[in-house]
Task: structure prediction
Amino acid sequence: MKVVAINGSPHKNGNVAFMLNYIGEKLTDLGVEFKIISAMEAVLSAKTPFCTACSSPCSKICYQGTKLEIAFEDLANADFVILASPVYFGTVSAQLKAFFDKTRWIRQNKLLINKHGAAISIGAAKYGGQETTLRALHDMMLVHGMSIVGDGSFESGAGHHGVCASLPIKDDHNAFARANALVERIKLINK
Result:
């Protein structure tokens, strides 16, 4: 099984990366192939970082030969996708939004339909917009025809919409419990 995680933070090694690396280590221990893609790095490699709908249907001309094209290939070849974003004004980061705006070619070719996906959001405060950010992440997945997986498992209970965390991330024990439940769900899907 191949799991691809999209780090929507402008900080490649920040709190979102910390949580994704934690999940990645757990999945790797289970024999799962795991890769993190930096949305910011991928988007900045394109000729234009924002989608301008330069062709319809999408011809990929704006990102051919870039890190964004490689990221989209990884995404299309994934068995499971994790979208992770910090909370910015109650929603996803601009970097992640720009990344998904550029996925028109993936969508028109139906490359994510029926793939499983999960969401992670991290806010500065305990009630800092994590659930509204999860909803935006879910919307991105639903527009692609993906099946959303929450953070519940038989061991941990039914769960919620996804993994939510608040700062300081290293002290958010509940977030790690929910991340462990998500790993358990991915393990069950992999069977």
